[in-house]
Amino acid sequence: MKTRQIFGVSLSLVLINLAAVMERADENLLPSVYKEVSEAFNAGPSDLGYLTFIRNFVQGLSSPLAGILVIHYDRPTVLAMGTFCWALSTAAVGVCHSFLQVSFWRAINGFGLAIVIPALQSFIADSYRDGVRGTGFGLLSLIGNLGGIGGGVLATVMAGKQFWGIEGWRCAFVLMATLSALIGFLVLLYVVDPGKRFPTTRDAGESSDRDDSIYKGNASAASIWKDSWAATKAVIKVKTFQIIVLQGIIGSLPWTAMVFFTMWFELIGFDNNTSATLLGLFAIGCAMGSLIGGSIADRLSQVYPHSARTMCAQFSAFMGIPFSWILLRVIPQSVSSFLTFSVTLFMMGLTISWNGTAANAPMFAEVVPVKHRTMIYAFDRAFEVSFSSIAAPLVGILSEKMFGYNSKSVDPIKGSLPEALALSKGILSMMAVPFGLCCLCYTPLYYIFKQDRENAGMLSVKEEEMM
Hints:
Elements: H1 2-32, H2 34-41, H3 45-72, H4 75-94, H5 99-127, H6 133-159, E1 162-163, E2 166-167, H7 168-190, H8 194-197, H9 201-213, H10 221-236, H11 239-257, H12 261-268, H13 272-303, H14 308-330, H15 338-352, H16 355-366, H17 373-388, H18 391-402, H19 417-429, H20 432-441, H21 445-466
Antiparallel strand pairs: 1-2
Helix pairs in contact: 1-5, 1-6, 1-7, 3-5, 3-10, 3-17, 3-18, 4-5, 4-7, 5-6, 5-17, 6-7, 6-13, 6-16, 11-17, 11-20, 11-21, 12-13, 12-19, 13-15, 13-16, 14-15, 14-16, 14-19, 14-20, 18-19
């Protein structure tokens, strides 16, 4: 029986990580083929930025829905719903014939991701203990980033070819959608919610009622909204949540601006395969850095339980400042700088990717009761993604209006160095300063996190005693 349970836990984690792989691959698809989409729909950087803005904005607005759904339905069902939604929208983008159609389906894609990401995070939070939760999130991020590498490289390589007379980038979207739908189906069939595997005292006392009224969908509307509103109020009033969301709104701007990296390299003159290699090295650095950062924070938190995660996050955010400047302004923008770009991108990814796994995700899990974990991740995504979505169109607007980017001057084969320079200035504007502000915004956590952590612990003890 024990062996069977261990196998079930392992299978669930494998499938959850595969879902994370496909989610990150899907996120990287469109940015990897910006140049080809720009040519197909006659769109400039600002238009492409709006596509990212639309998806992120809808994702942010819809994220609280994940918290509401998970209160009343098991997470595998919620994950499958979101996966099918994003798979459908990804396939639809691959067959679109107008920019307006692409915009609509990118919005639907954001809705699907809004449901999936908070549920994934809370699933991992419930599957690992406090002392190793950073490593757990790091492993999820590592595997997810590998998926992002695969999705980005696949799309970039396929974009320069044709298959059966169809543009390669369209084929990449349809292929990724098919794989995503398959993973969603497997999650629905085989993943077991950790809340069911490891029931609390309350769960044990109310399991039959919960199965009958909630998991079968018979809960009253009044009950659903009452529970959802209670969870929302409990999450929003936590000061640690407020601080992390504030830094996240600012700190997410650079990561949103980075969607233009592939287009920037191609404007410099790198071909599809070389651009994919450069972005792959950056993604590998981010993947390794997220795991390393989470592990370091876990170890340091054993010595400095209330400040170690904040220190790690500030270090990572600060490192974004010099690396952004070196990458975008110091290194000569020439194909001859391939090796320098490679080393810089890898080291940059290795050091700027700690925040989520070392601090944000583990700290969220410790400042609210278990039943509110999906809700706190959902609202974090709602605020961060909604506000950071402005970075992509701002990069395009700055590049075109302030730095002189002209899409008509771009050679489809050789790119354009003046346009590459203009785009790099637009990207830098949305990276260096936000990284610095993000670093400063973490400072209050040195005083706030300890109290919120103790409050959550006391609340959990009281709830157990009442049961």
